[in-house]
Amino acid sequence: MGRPRTPLLDRERITTTALQLIDETGDFSVPQIARRLGVQTGSVYHHVDGRDGIVELLRERVASAIETATLDLAPWDAAVEAWARSYRAAFAAHPRAIPLLMTSPVRAPRVLDQYERAVTRLLEAGFEPAGIMTLITALENLVLGSALDLAAPEAMWEPADRASTPRLAAALAAVGDRRADRAFEVGLTAFLNHARALRESGRP
């Protein structure tokens, strides 16, 4: 028999399958990937560097949806704002991947290159080097927390009865729709105002 026209296994198919498992269950294993692709577990290891290697492939796949060209916008705060919005949208598409990706070091070259561009943009804007990673980390906390919030129920608080928490019940009744989106706008505005103040003061 000749070789199949389409390879049974490659890194792209492994990544796609792992992401499908995460979207469905919140996690993946190499044996699960092998079973879904109809191959032996050992065959998967011929293409990837174990589970950690698959995690980095997943990171690259999810982060590839971020529009890196936003970092070239001017002025700098418009670039950061657009990058944050694109970053949030990319991870909101796969919220169950967030805990997995955020608890392991970033090693994927293409993802590190995106951080390099973000750091460069902030340096060029006049931010002090000592404070740049703190700013980026704070922005990620906002973006990824909001991406998770988008996947949460619209009503996250369910008082047993209005009498026990009357003010909370009234606040919940008044919140309206798109709570997560409006909360993100509040957080992003606060972050950008803080970043502008830091830049003007010259403090890290």
Describe the model:
With 204 residues, the protein is mainly alpha-helical. 66% of the residues lie in helices and 0% in strands. α5 runs parallel beside α8, α5 packs antiparallel against α10 and α8 packs antiparallel against α10. It is flat.
Which SSEs are present, and which pair or pack?
Blueprint: H1 11-25, H2 30-37, H3 41-45, H4 50-63, H5 76-92, H6 98-101, H7 109-124, H8 129-151, H9 166-174, H10 179-201
Q: Helicity range of the residues?
A: 55-70%
Beta-strand content? under 5%
Quick one: overall form?
Answer: flat
Mean model confidence by pLDDT: 93
Treating each run of at least 4 consecutive H or I residues as one helix, how many helices? 10
How many strands? Answer: 0
- Estimated radius of gyration: 21 Å
Unreliably modeled segments: none
The major pleated sheet works out as: none
- Give the terminus-to-terminus CA distance: 65 Å
SSE order, one letter for each helix or strand: HHHHHHHHHH
Structural class: mainly alpha
Keywords:
204 residues
Structure summary:
This protein is mostly helical and 204 residues long. Helices cover 66% and strands 0% of the residues.
